[in-house]
UniProtKB/TrEMBL annotation:
All copies of domain GHMP kinase C-terminal, residue ranges: 201-277
Keywords for this protein: Amino-acid biosynthesis, ATP-binding, Cytoplasm, Kinase, Nucleotide-binding, Threonine biosynthesis, Transferase
Pfam families the record matches: GHMP_kinases_C, GHMP_kinases_N
Domain GHMP kinase N-terminal: 57-141
The name this protein goes by in its record: Homoserine kinase
Binding site for ATP: 88-98
Species for this entry: Gracilibacillus oryzae
The family this protein is said to belong to: Belongs to the GHMP kinase family. Homoserine kinase subfamily.
Length: 303
């Protein structure tokens, strides 16, 4: 028996939705799992070169954690895992979140744990500390979540827009991006910041992308501080804003994302690539189905 696990990437924050709003995108981490004599993780994509190939792989570490928590009397059977990924590492597109979801699903299928989606999301958020990336990678679509030891969330349908990722050739670690954030806000600043986030959610719910773009520009929570780590931020922001509904820093960065009307995508991206050829440009759609798991049974041929 073998298994296929396919996990979509995610963008998060969407401006002021810091640690609470995420969106699944159609870039994927894919695992092909077969039984083996010992654990082995085989990188089959350039961006995964150098990843740990044994039990120190993050996917295995998550799977083992889940196994100990939910099936104390069973051990994970050894497997060979071929890993493919379209998701650039440390660029703010949820690469670590996809590994967490993949690890949870790996334990779930190998030990037949029959975990519910809510149980999987609780496990993932306990590990990650916030739901903004793991929730959309698990559930699909746009997810607004809250975590205070227990996860609460709602999903919002998204239509009519394409998310253009502008990916530079350098990494930005989340811990470095978090280090530049303020440790506290005044009461007045907190009210202002939360009101921007509230209107942002309302704009997503109503499909008012122009309003969402205006709120992205007013973010208090992270973009004013993190943009100092990204030399091209202001220049690209001003440039992309001429055609996009809004522009935001994806996750912790350094990827920036422009929200563009579906009708204008082709011409806009064609010009953007021409003017800024040193960046990777990806036109991404919302992935509404979340993680996908398929079991393939061995076919035994008889004479």
């Amino acid at each position: 028996m073998s298994w296929l696990i396919k996990v979509p990437s995610s963008t998060s924050n969407l401006g002021a939705g810091f640690d609470s709003i995420g969106l699944a995108l159609n870039l994927y981490l894919e695992l092909k799992i077969t039984r083996a004599d010992e654990w082995e993780f085989i990188p089959a994509s350039a961006c995964l070169e150098g990843i740990p190939k044994g039990k120190d792989n993050l996917v295995y570490e998550i799977a083992e954690k889940v196994a100990k928590q939910y099936s104390m009397d069973k051990e994970l059977p050894s497997c060979s895992v071929e890993m493919k990924s379209e998701i650039p590492l440390a660029r703010g597109l949820g690469s670590s979140a996809t590994a967490i979801i993949a690890g949870i699903e790996l334990a779930n299928v190998l030990l037949d744990l029959k975990l519910s989606k809510d149980e999987k999301l609780q496990i993932a958020t306990d590990i990650e500390g916030h739901p903004d990336n793991v929730a959309p990678s698990l559930l699909g679509g746009c997810v607004v979540g809250h975590y205070d030891g227990k996860v609460s969330y709602t999903q919002i349908p998204v239509k009519g827009v394409t998310f253009i990722a502008v990916i530079p050739d350098f990494e930005l670690k989340t811990k470095d991006a978090r280090a530049v954030l303020p440790k506290e806000f005044s009461y007045k600043e907190s009210v202002q910041a939360s009101s921007v986030a509230n209107v942002s959610v309302a704009a997503i719910c109503s499909g008012n992308w122009k309003l969402l773009g205006e709120m992205m520009e007013k973010d208090y929570f992270h973009q004013p501080y993190r943009k100092s780590l990204i030399p091209h931020y202001d220049e690209l922001y001003d440039y992309l804003s001429q055609e996009a509904y809004g522009v935001f820093l994806s996750g912790a960065g350094p990827t920036m994302i422009a929200v563009v009307d579906d009708k204008n995508v082709f011409n806009a991206v064609k010009q953007w690539r021409k003017d800024y050829p040193n960046y990777q440009w990806l036109s991404l759609q919302v992935e509404n189905t979340g993680v996908y798991v398929e079991t393939e049974k061995e076919v035994i041929q008889q004479d």
